[in-house]
Amino acid sequence: MSIAADDLEEIRQLARSVATGRIAPFASAVDEAARFPTEGYQALVESQLHAVVVPEAYGGVGADALTSAVVAEEIARVCATTQQVSGANELFAWPLLLAASEEQQRRWLAPIAAGEALGAFALSEPDAGSDVASMTTRAEATDEGWRVRGTKRWITNGGVADCYVLFAVTDPEAGSRGISAFALERTDAGLSFGAPEKKMGLKGSPTTEVYLDDVPLPADRLIGRPGEGLRIALGTLDRTRTGVAAQAVGIAQGALDVAVDHVSQRRQFGKVLAEFQGLQFMLADMAVAVRAARLLTHAAAEEIEAGAPTMGASGAAAKLFASDTAMKVTTDAVQLLGGSGYVTDFPVERMMRDAKITQIYEGTNQIQRIVIARDLLNRTQG
Length: 382
What we know:
Layout: H1 5-33, H2 38-46, H3 65-76, H4 80-99, H5 102-113, E1 119-122, E2 138-141, E3 145-156, E4 163-169, E5 179-185, E6 191-193, E7 207-218, E8 222-223, H6 229-265, E9 267-268, E10 271-272, H7 277-306, H8 311-337, H9 348-357, H10 365-381
Parallel strand pairs: 1-4
Antiparallel strand pairs: 2-3, 3-7, 4-5, 5-8, 6-7, 9-10
Pfam family, one: Acyl-CoA_dh_1
GO molecular function, one term: flavin adenine dinucleotide binding
Organism: Blastococcus saxobsidens (strain DD2)
């Protein structure tokens, strides 16, 4: 569903109001205690901003990719942890939107839209991160359906989420064409979780291993057809990488806002820091990079809506540039705040720690360059 410009701005203002008024006050405490962002996530649920891509037919907002990006940016501007928790709902939703039956979509997306369930996406493994096709988790066919065994790693919302889209090998002889997608529920027998990872950033977003000890699944848990799993996973990432780009833009914008406010008030050598031309140049460079990252992200979102064949490369480009921008801008923000930037009394050190993961997850920036180069060369040779 395409959103008119006026409506998009209204949604941005709503997201900004919720983020500033109901999420930001808890961001530091969530980070310090490494606890689930209960207050912030509840605020998103009450505002229907926690899973905006879920269609209206299932009780969701049915927002387009640009609206989703705008919401992600505004939340991440004050608390990337809260945005990450809600963003996992969209990672869960997209495989269902791409390949599940209407009955499956209603079964698992309606509770997400209602705020009654939390979703997760289980693709990575201890020895299959960037190289997802080398996964070893197995799903064997049984008379009743499937039996799944293996381990998944780095799963956002692991142990907290109520439902999971999980990828497993169903035909070991078929290589990448032998991977299938399944829906799991937290109460499934044989499903358990590791201890939350102790992370540099996004500390309140639970990240765990997921253990599958001969988990029995009925036949209706298969999403799409056997062997379509990698296509579903990559199709999902082609769309959600734009969300990571938006998250990175939000983190960078938040850090820039803090830096501008600080140099506008802090005095040294008899004048406000903002009067020093060298610092003005730093701020200008930061602002240009954030603006460019935002435009790349919005362009990628528009390609998703258009179903453009280049949307995967566009999302990769946006994620690559925006995440590098977030790392650079947050580091510069710490520098501009000086000693104040290095302590937890100010949020830029948290933003710098949070920014780093955007260069790593949903495909490292090295992988994004491969995606971009392959698209470029394929179109040139085609």
